[in-house]
Structures are given as C-alpha cells and as structure tokens.
Amino acid sequence: MSGDEMNPAAVAQAVVDVQGDDRWMSQHTRFVLECKDAEPEVLFIGDSMVQLMQQYEVWRELFSPLHALNFGIGGDTTCNVLWRLQNGELDNIWPKVAVVWVGTNNYEHSAEQVAGGIFAIAQLLTSRLPKTKVVVLGLLARGERPNPLREKNAAVNGLLRSLLPQLGQAQFLDVGEGFVHSDGTISTRDMFDFLHLTSAGYRAIAKPLSDLLLQILEETPEERRASLV
Amino acid sequence: MSAEDSNPAATPTPCVDTQGDGRWMSLHNHFVSNSKDKEPDVLFVGDSLVQLLHQFEVWRELFSPLHALNFGVGGDATQHVLWRLSNGELAHISPKVVVLWVGTNNHGHTAEQTCGGIMAIVQLIKDKLPNAQTVILGLLPRGKMPNPLRDRNARVNKLVQEAVSSLPHASLLNHCYHQMSLIVAFVCLAPLEFD
C-alpha cells in the first residue's frame, strides 16, 4: 500500500465553493452542530448515496429507529469525507457503528487510489473510535449499459474486500446485487438517472444493511451488562 | 434582442460526458423513446428540481393523475434543456401544458443571459407545440444565508416575469405556497380555454 501522502484520494480536502452559496460548508457546519446534542448509535457518512437515503420513507422505517445520523453530502469524494471527519464531524459522538459509502465521485483517481482513500477513512474511524464497528458499503454499478465506471467501481470493491480485513473492526458489505440485469442494463426503476437510487432501489439495499446493523447492535456486550446494573 | 449564438444560455448545447458512463445521453434517449407511446397532458421539463419531484409520493398523488411526463435531468442548465427539446423530446407528444423549471444551474451566466435561455425554451415550445401553454416556475432561493445566487435567481424571475407579461402562451409562477396547486387548476382549465 503506497503511503497516504502519495495517494491523492487519501488527502483530506474541503470542497471549494465555486457556485457561490457556500452550501457544502453550511452542511458541514450543521453536521458538527448535530454532534453536540445527538447520541447516535449509527453514523452514516458519505456522498449523495447516503444523503438521498434520508429523503425516502425507508430511512424513517429502518434507520431512524436505530438512532442514526446522516452525514451524507452529494458530490463528495473520499478526500472530502476525510476532511469532514477530521474537522468536527466525529466530535462528541460514540456511535456503535459507522456506515461508510463513498468513492463513486472520485473521477480523478484510479481504482487503487479510491480503495486506498476509503481504507484511509476506515482507518481514521477505527483509530478515533476504537469501539466502533465500521461497515463499508460497496460501490454500486452505474450508467445504463456497461462502461468504464462500472469496471472501476467493481475493481474498488474487489480491493476493499482484501484490504478491510486488515482492520479488525471494519467489514465490507456488497449491496449491489440485482441492479444489473442479464442484458447488462440498469433500470430507471432502480436508479432514476442510472446513478442515484429510487425509493425502490433504496428498499433493496436497506434490507441487508439494516439486518447487518441490527446484528451488530445486538452484539455489544458492554451495553447489555451496563443495562443489567 | 441578442442573437442566440451570443448568449450561451440560449444556445442549444448537449452535455459532454466527462464522467464516463454516458448517463446524460442515456436519459435523453430514454425520454425520446418514452414519449413515443405516451400521450401526456402535462410535460415537466428542467433540472434536478423537476427530476427529483418524480421520486416522491407527491408525484403519484398530484401529477400522475394529470397524465404527466417528467423530463428532468439533474445539473441541466437552460442550454441543455434547449438542446434536449430541439432533439426529439417534443417530437412525439402534444401536451396541453409544459411546466418549465430550469435556470438555477446556469453558473457563469448573468441573470439576463439565463432569462434569455428560459425565453428561448419558451419560444421553442411555442414553435413545436403551438397550442400548448408554458408554465415557468420561478427559481427558488438557495443557500443557507443570503448570497449572490439568491440575488441572481430573484433577478432572473423578475426578468422572466417582464418578458412573459405580453405573451398569451406563457406565464410565470413564482414560488409561493400554492404554486403546485395552481398548476393542477391550470391543467384542469386548459381544455376549456384552448380547444
């Protein structure tokens, strides 16, 4: 594994406001504020795949009850997520699980670099929050038909499968099954723009994810002992 | 009146695939072929604000019953919508109403240019669908605090309002609580007024 300073995808970087309304920083500031009062058991962090999930019914049904926080920002790369985690979005919270979903927006980086960036995020989480389990979601296929980004995302997933076991508290979860049909196409019923999930698309991935989260949340022995006191 | 090619916001321009998965063109082709066997009374066209509308329950409740089609593409600016409508998305349908919501992504363009882009789309719709009404939705404020984009969007709305005031086939609905219900009323009234 090349040193982090040689992997641009593992360099923390804030988003520069080019549009003129400073929304990225506004969202980051809001998340830092949320950390002050919230006591989440689950933290979701990543890009629009995370952010959009909160807009659908499935979030209220499956993840709100788990006391989950959603720190997703559309367009984020691994660099942006690293910056946010290093600049306040982990302050004063001790979630039992952190769900990481990022990497599909790393257009400038190779699959190896992206996997390295995601690994760096998992490393940061396990070192800041040693008791927290980290679940890294695989990147989904994208585009209506087979294309280089599908291959790249699949390569990232393959690398993560072998890298993540190095961190005892981290695991990889592939939620992409079923989106690519036998003719190689993705349907707008699952991804309305061949990238972002519809309500139905989120339902499909939410089930295996919430099953895993419930399993992890039920596993924490310290809390069980504490509640018996 | 500035010539179309001196206003980039009013020059039909396809989106270049910089990411590598051709999604913009896929969506455009999808809309063109989708329109071949549909007979929508209402067509929604624009950017992500239109596109996302389709994902929420409110679409099924309020707009599906009106036989509405959704041709929204996230990130589109006026020149992209102009290109899409010039290249097949209006070829096979005759909606009574076209709801147009675009302009907030015209980064780098002035309010005047953006208004010019919106009005170019209105003109195109009139050329292709002479009997249709165009309802332009006002650009929403954006950003947590006051900022230049809010000012720009408000100025676009003002310019568009002035431009459509003399046009019988187009109107602006500026953001207000009853914006969407007005569209419903409009569509219901349309057959009485424009047969």
TrEMBL record, chain A:
Domain SGNH hydrolase-type esterase: 44-204
Cytoplasm is among the record's keywords: yes
Subcellular localization: Cytoplasm
Gene Ontology CC terms, in alphabetical order: cytoplasm
BP GO terms, sorted: lipid catabolic process
Pfam family, one: Lipase_GDSL_2
GO MF annotations, alphabetized: 1-alkyl-2-acetylglycerophosphocholine esterase activity; platelet-activating factor acetyltransferase activity
Domain of life: Eukaryota
Keyword Cytoplasm: yes
InterPro entries: SGNH_hydro, SGNH_hydro_sf
Reactions this protein catalyses: 1-O-hexadecyl-2-acetyl-sn-glycero-3-phosphoethanolamine + H2O = 1-O-hexadecyl-sn-glycero-3-phosphoethanolamine + acetate + H(+); 1-O-hexadecyl-2-acetyl-sn-glycero-3-phosphocholine + H2O = 1-O-hexadecyl-sn-glycero-3-phosphocholine + acetate + H(+); a 1-O-alkyl-2-acetyl-sn-glycero-3-phosphocholine + H2O = a 1-O-alkyl-sn-glycero-3-phosphocholine + acetate + H(+); 1-O-hexadecyl-2-acetyl-sn-glycero-3-phosphate + H2O = 1-O-hexadecyl-sn-glycero-3-phosphate + acetate + H(+)
Assigned keywords, A-Z: Cytoplasm, Hydrolase, Lipid degradation, Lipid metabolism
Coiled-coil annotated spans: none
The EC number(s) this enzyme carries: 3.1.1.47
Family: Belongs to the 'GDSL' lipolytic enzyme family. Platelet-activating factor acetylhydrolase IB beta/gamma subunits subfamily.
PANTHER family tied to this protein: PLATELET-ACTIVATING FACTOR ACETYLHYDROLASE (PTHR11852), PLATELET-ACTIVATING FACTOR ACETYLHYDROLASE IB SUBUNIT ALPHA2 (PTHR11852:SF1)
Name of the protein in question: Platelet-activating factor acetylhydrolase IB subunit alpha2
Native organism: Esox lucius (Northern pike)
Lineage: Eukaryota, Metazoa, Chordata, Craniata, Vertebrata
Originating gene: PAFAH1B2
TrEMBL record, chain B:
Catalytic activity: 1-O-hexadecyl-2-acetyl-sn-glycero-3-phosphate + H2O = 1-O-hexadecyl-sn-glycero-3-phosphate + acetate + H(+); a 1-O-alkyl-2-acetyl-sn-glycero-3-phosphocholine + H2O = a 1-O-alkyl-sn-glycero-3-phosphocholine + acetate + H(+); 1-O-hexadecyl-2-acetyl-sn-glycero-3-phosphocholine + H2O = 1-O-hexadecyl-sn-glycero-3-phosphocholine + acetate + H(+)
Swiss-Prot/TrEMBL keywords: Acetylation, Cytoplasm, Hydrolase, Lipid metabolism, Phosphoprotein
Cellular localisation: Cytoplasm
EC number, UniProt record: 3.1.1.47
GO cellular-component term (any): cytoplasm
UniProt KW DNA-binding keyword: no
Alphabetized SUPFAM superfamilies for the sequence: SGNH hydrolase (SSF52266)
One Pfam match: Lipase_GDSL_2
GO biological process per UniProt: lipid metabolic process
Keyword Phosphoprotein appears in the UniProt entry: yes
GO molecular function: 1-alkyl-2-acetylglycerophosphocholine esterase activity; platelet-activating factor acetyltransferase activity
Location of the SGNH hydrolase-type esterase domain: 44-165
Subunit annotation: Forms a catalytic dimer which is either homodimer (alpha1/alpha1 homodimer) or heterodimer with PAFAH1B2 (alpha1/alpha2 heterodimer). Component of the cytosolic (PAF-AH (I)) heterotetrameric enzyme, which is composed of PAFAH1B1 (beta), PAFAH1B2 (alpha2) and PAFAH1B3 (alpha1) subunits. The catalytic activity of the enzyme resides in the alpha1 (PAFAH1B3) and alpha2 (PAFAH1B2) subunits, whereas the beta subunit (PAFAH1B1) has regulatory activity. Trimer formation is not essential for the catalytic activity. Interacts with VLDLR; this interaction may modulate the Reelin pathway.
Functional note: Alpha1 catalytic subunit of the cytosolic type I platelet-activating factor (PAF) acetylhydrolase (PAF-AH (I)) heterotetrameric enzyme that catalyzes the hydrolyze of the acetyl group at the sn-2 position of PAF and its analogs and modulates the action of PAF. The activity and substrate specificity of PAF-AH (I) are affected by its subunit composition.
Protein family (similarity comment): Belongs to the 'GDSL' lipolytic enzyme family. Platelet-activating factor acetylhydrolase IB beta/gamma subunits subfamily.
PANTHER family named among the record's database cross-references: PLATELET-ACTIVATING FACTOR ACETYLHYDROLASE, PLATELET-ACTIVATING FACTOR ACETYLHYDROLASE IB SUBUNIT ALPHA1
The protein's name: Platelet-activating factor acetylhydrolase IB subunit alpha1
Lineage: Eukaryota, Metazoa, Chordata, Craniata, Vertebrata
Gene: PAFAH1B3
